[in-house]
Amino acid sequence: MSPSLSEVEALVSQLAQKIDAPEEYLPTYGDSKDGGHPYIEIESGVLFYLAKERGQQTLYYIALDLDDLLYHIFKDVTFMIATKYELKNRVRGQSFRRILFIEQERLIGVLDEKWQARLQKKHEQILVDHPFNDNADERATYYKQLVKNHQYPGNEWSLACEKYPLPDKN
């Protein structure tokens, strides 16, 4: 039997308290606030995780079950919290995703260890195609400096990448 919207809302609220998630990060229930804010609908026992932006559907996810719905809600909630955390704890010369991924995985792990493992796997898959790009800021700054100085026309990017190498794709 599928839960009611009020049951989902109560469960989300209970879990959100465990990680001090701000109310504004949580979805609405049954109707959209628009602006890309997620909301939950239940139709004929089917759980939907949705979002609209200017009346256009931007997120449409049919959850497999309540656990899957909760994972997707808190994947997004923990991402927003981890993003703010990373910004306050940024390390120069290091990909912002290093701190963000660790903090997001930690937060979701407070809620459910299976969700943590699922999110870690997702992050690992992301890093296969898009590895951490440490020194990206330094590379870009150096490149701009070379272009501005007109010393090495056409070779600026190669020189910047030589000094601050691009990440390897394994």
UniProtKB/TrEMBL annotation:
Residues 49-122 form the Immunity protein domain. InterPro entries: Imm63. It comes from the Bacteria. This is Immunity protein 63. It comes from Mucilaginibacter pineti.
